[in-house]
Model the fold of this input.
Amino acid sequence: MDSMAEKIKGLPLVTILNMRHRSFATACVNISMDIVKVSRMLGHTQVNTTINRYVRYKSDDIQEEFDRLIMGQKKGFKEEHKRQLLSIH
Done:
């Protein structure tokens, strides 16, 4: 039987703080909160830290956002840009 050390070898270290940050950051982004504000609330000096380490996007959410972009439902999305994207897609 494998030892516990062998089972967890190669897995990322997960702490309560890490999980709390991830859950909070992801929940805030999911309700469209400004990522800069989320980053500041978490005490990060770099927004990239928040985005790269703490926010987890679901593939369905990414697809939905792209679909809204393509359909021109984004605020301020110009008809000209919509046509350009549809010709690429």
